[in-house]
Amino acid sequence: MIGAVLTELAPRVSHADLVRTTDETLSVAVDADGIEILEDHADAIQVRAVEHGRLGWAAGSTSELPAVVAAALRSAAIGEPTTLFPPAPAGLAAVATSSPAARSLAAGDLIDLARRLGDRLARRGWTVETWAERSIGLVEVGNTRGVLTSYEVTLAGIGAVVAASGGPICRVHQARVGPPETADLERLVDEVEARLTPPVLDEPTLPPSGRVWFGPRAVRSLLEPVLARLTGDRWLTGPAGWTLDDRLTLIDDPHAAGRPGSRPICDDGVVTRPVVLIERGAPGQGIVDLVAASRHRVPATGHGWRRGFSAARTGFSNLILADGDRPADRLGAALGDGLFVPEFRFGPAPNPATGIFRVEVPWAFRVEGGRVVGRIDGVVLAGDAFELLGRVTAIGADGEWIGAARMPSLVVDGVRFDLR
């Protein structure tokens, strides 16, 4: 389909490229009230065109393709002046982006997965809802310079929402190209138990600052300011000279087998490759999509995303932070006295690229002598992520995949504490 559209557009514009994505998602949710099954189907196309040195784009349903093409041409007539250097065809790496086993998952299989997780989480006083889903799709990418390819995608996920009296809601999830394995379910159960089992400490006190053991999910969030500075125009024009702990190496790997961010070619038609983002604490290569790369006269890195009806963006694929040498059962000893924080998120403000943050974390646990003694509610963490990532005292050998990121734990010194 997209080949015929490109053939039609080629004599009319300086350049055009298209991305078509199809998706069929089946989801189930299981709780004490019963089972809910949802199905969703999508077939979207994005058309981008350069005409008389101006860039335009449009997105819509593939069933309305002629209207989407016409809208893209109208957009180009009034678009921003742009010089685009489109990629030529090139060989693609063999990347595992789909799984026959995930493709064959039916509603009954998903219900069984959700029930298995629910049974493992059944505790007196806990309210548990579990869910499972699978997605099947196709990505087609092409341009008027001869790029024309497609690849199948699948995604399977499982998760739980658990409430215990007197505490925050606990949400955990996992996703991969293939069906969830028993180890994935057990890891989620371990996460929930680690959060909900410790007692809540009455009238806790905290020092003004100290060490924090950030779990793998929290480490992914702690890296957010670093990733912001490695993306697009911020990478090409932003301040240089920052460094992190020299034991930190971070890679973006779109070829990691069976992970949600894997793909052989990006939505701009640029062949993907692994990129070393941080090497021994020093900034390595940033990521840029085709538009930013053309504007700055640098090679595109294969990180363009154009999906659904959303505007183009530059985004990472699979992030892998190298493991350290500290076994999981010795991370508490590396911390000594401080806090264990399994998860937190930056809010919508301030701009995460500054690195400065002050956030209330949903889960924080007091550690004394290397052992968790209880949960503290209302903990606020503050600091500069770049400074903190230069004060790492231990890196765990406990790296685990969380969707499209593989992160170890980090023990970091000098985090400021407060209580809400």
What does this 3D model show about the protein?
The chain is an alpha+beta fold. It has two domains: 2-196, 2-Layer Sandwich (PmbA/TldD fold); 209-419, no CATH class. Helix content is 22%, strand content 36%. It contains eleven helices and 22 strands. It has helices at 2-9, 65-78, 100-103, 107-121, 182-196, 216-222, 224-229, 232-237, 290-296, 331-335, 385-388; strands at residues 15-31, 34-51, 54-61, 126-143, 148-164, 170-176, 209-214, 250-252, 275-279, 282-283, 304-305, 313-314, 319-321, 338-341, 356-360, 365-368, 371-375, 379-384, 392-395, 400-402, 405-407, 410-419. Strands 7, 14, 15, 16, 17, 18, 19 and 22 form an eight-stranded mixed sheet that branches. A six-stranded antiparallel sheet has the order 3-2-1-4-5-6. A six-stranded mixed sheet has the order 10-9-8-13-21-20, with helices on one face. Helix 4 runs parallel beside helix 5. It is globular. The termini are far apart. The model has no long low-confidence stretch (mean pLDDT 94).
